[in-house]
Amino acid sequence: MKNKKYWIAFSSIEEIDSSFVQRLYNYFGDIETAYKASLSDLSQIEGLNIKKAQTFVEKRSKVNLDKVLEEVINRKISFITFEDTNYPYMLKNISNPPMVLYIKGDLGLCNLEKTLGVVGSRRASMNAKDVLTKILTEFRNTDICVVSGLASGIDTTAHLGALTNNLKTIGVIASGFDFVYPTSNRELYKKIEDGAGALISEYFPTFQPLQFRFPQRNRIVSGLSYGTLVAEAAIRSGALITANLCLEQGRELMCIPGLISNPNTEGIYKLLKQGATMVTSATDILSALNWEIKPEKQLKIEFNDFSESEKKVLTSIEIEPKGFDKISSETGLDFNSLLVNLTNLELKGIIKQIAGEKYQIC
Q1: In Å, what is the CA distance from 13 to each residue of 16, 65, 78, 80, 84?
Q2: Helix, strand or coil for residue 320?
Q3: 99 located within any domain
Q4: What is the distance between the alpha carbons of residues 7 and 80, in angstroms, rounded to a whole number?
Q5: Which residues lie closer than 8 Å to 262 by C-beta, 6 or more apart?
Q6: pLDDT 10s digits, 54-79
Q7: Looking at residue 297, what is its pLDDT?
Q8: pTM for this predicted structure
Q9: Are residues 152 and 264 in the same domain?
Q10: In a shared domain, residues 183 and 272
C-alpha cells in the first residue's frame, strides 16, 4: 500500500487535476518521487503551469498521507490507480485518463471488452426513453455492459434498462461517494453497487458534484466504451460534448433518430449528417462495433405462439401504442375478451401499459 497513499494524496487535492498528476508521474517515473518533488524540481518540467505547481506544493503540506488513505478504506471504497495492471485498458488510452478510479460494487463483474456508453438529455422525451429501452431489451441476458453517467433522463433509463434485462452496468459519477446526485437515484446507486455492476468516480470521497465536474466525467463514460450511443441531444448539451469526446478518442459514435420537431434531436441530426451511425435496433450496434453477443439463455417467441385473439391485439398495437377503446374497435373483441387478452399478454411480458392508459409492445 506504500505507493497507493501517494496516488490518493494527489487525488485529495482539489486544486489540481489528473493531467497535472499524469505529467508529474510521466516525468519522474515514480509516484512517490513525483509527490515529494520540490518546487525547483517541478519548474524543470517543460510546459508545467508554475502557478499550479506552487498551489500543489502549498496544499501538499497540509495533507496527512496516512489519514487520506484511511478515509477511503474506512468508507469501504476500493480503488485502482493508473499504474495498476487491472486499470481498464480502454480508459488508459485516452489523452487525459483519471489517475485514480474509486469504485463501489464489483468492476470485475463487468465485461470491459463489450462496453457500450449511453448518453442523452436529462429532459428526455418519452419516445427516446422507450426506443432506448427497446434496444437494450434486445440485448437481454448477454455479456454487454452499459456505461452511463447516472444523471436523470437518458442516463437513468440506460441503467434501469440494463438492470431490467440482466445486463451489467457501470455508473460514472461526477462527485465523490459522499454524495448521491441526483438524490432520486439513491435506490439505483444501491442496486448497481449490490451486484448489478459498479459505480466509479475519479474524485476523492468528499468532493462535491460541482458543475464543471460533469463534463470532466463525460470523458470517462466515452473512454471506458468501445462505442457511445446518443439517445437525445440538443445543439448545446453535455451529450453532444460526450459525442465529440467519443470521436476524439477514436471510438464509434452512434445515434438514435427522433422526431425532427423535438429541439433535443437537433444535435442528433447534426451528428448523423457528420457520419455517426444511425441506430434503430440492437443489430445496428452489433454491426457498427463488430460484436457477437453471447446470450446466457435466449427466448424466441414466434407470432404463431399466440392465440388468434392475441394476434389481433398485437397487430393493432404493432406500429404505435393505443388505448383500450381503439384496440377494441380495430380487433372487434368485446370488453371482457379484450381485457383477458391484454392481461395475458402483460403477464407474458409481451406488452405493457404506458402513460395515457395506452398499450404498447415491449
Answers
A1: 6, 12, 19, 18, 21
A2: coil
A3: no
A4: 10
A5: 125, 127, 232
A6: 999 999 999 999 999 999 999 999 99
A7: 45
A8: 0.80
A9: yes
A10: yes
**Looking at the domain assignment, is residue 54 inside a domain?**
yes
Helix (H, G, I), strand (E, B) or coil at 54: helix
CA 252, 258, 264, 266 dihedral sign is positive
How confident is the model over 154-164, as pLDDT tens digits? 999 999 999 99
What domain range is 336 assigned to? 303-361
- Structural domain contains residue 235: yes
Structure confidence at residue 302 (pLDDT): 65
For residue 212 the three cell numbers come to 464543471
Locate the DSSP E strands across the chain: 78-81, 100-105, 115-119, 145-148, 168-172, 197-201, 227-230, 252-255, 277-278, 322-323, 351-354, 358-361
Query: What's the rounded mean pLDDT across residues 300-304?
Result: 62
Q: Which amino acid is at 281?
A: S
Residue 196 lies in a domain: yes
Q: Rounded CA gap, 13 and 168, in Å?
A: 32
Q: The domain that contains 9 carries what CATH number?
A: 1.10.150
Predicted confidence band of residue 298 (pLDDT cuts 50, 70, 90)? very low
**CA 11 to each of CA 18, 68, 203: distance values in angstroms, whole numbers, following the listed order:** 8, 10, 7
Claim to verify: residue 149 and residue 254 sit in the same structural domain: yes
Cell of 159: 441503467
